[in-house]
Every structure is written in C-alpha cells, then in structure tokens.
Specification:
Shape: globular
Number of strands: 11
Largest sheet: 7 strands, mixed
Number of helices: 0
Radius of gyration: 13 Å
Oligomer: single chain
Amino acid sequence: QVQLVESGGGLVQPGGSLNLSCDASTDNFRAYAMAWFRQAPGTEREFVASVTWLGTAKEYSESVKGRFTISRDNAKNTVSLRMKNLRPEDTGVYYCAAFPRGDFRTIPTGGAGTAYWGKGTLVTVSS
C-alpha cells in the first residue's frame, strides 16, 4: 500500500512556473516507479511524466517535453514536477501515481500492475 499526497498547485499566469510535490507514505519507496498524470475538465486523464525507481530514466509526454522536469528523492520519499513556461492548456488536476517499478515502460499507457494514486492538486494557468 502506498498513500500519496500532492501539493503545490495553484493559479499561475501563462509563461509562469510552478513546482508540484508528492509525498509517499510507504516503507519501500524504491519498489515503485513514479509518475504524474493530469486531467483537464471534460477530458480523459493523460500521462505527463514518469521516473524510474532509481531516478536514472525519465519519460515525458510530447506536450510537456522541454518545459517540465520530474525528479525524485528516495531519502525523503518524494517526487516532484517542476513546470515552467506554463500554458493555458496545462490547466487541470495533477495526480501523482506509484507503479510497480517493473512497469516503467508501460506507464504512459496506464501501466500493467496495480497502481496507487493521490487525490490530485489543481493547476490553473490563466491571465
């Protein structure tokens, strides 16, 4: 079992930056690859970024590549998403997720094993 709590969402102007954080309550954080997904109003939840259990490999959706950076701190059981040059289309609820670490390559399509999800944090990009 993994409990995930996201924080850091808010209102930001286009072109601005925001840092999201996710705290994981688990005795074995290294057993999980971590990811961020987002869901805009009226749309399906979509993959944003993922990172392997060691933090050495990362994947990004094409829409955020070059603007977002995912990272993790295994000593603190946290995963972060640094977002810059934000656009109105980045608006949505951002969810942190933990997947079995062997599922890393399948995360963009939803993963293969049991995943754990946080409740999300709202990001609004608007002037």
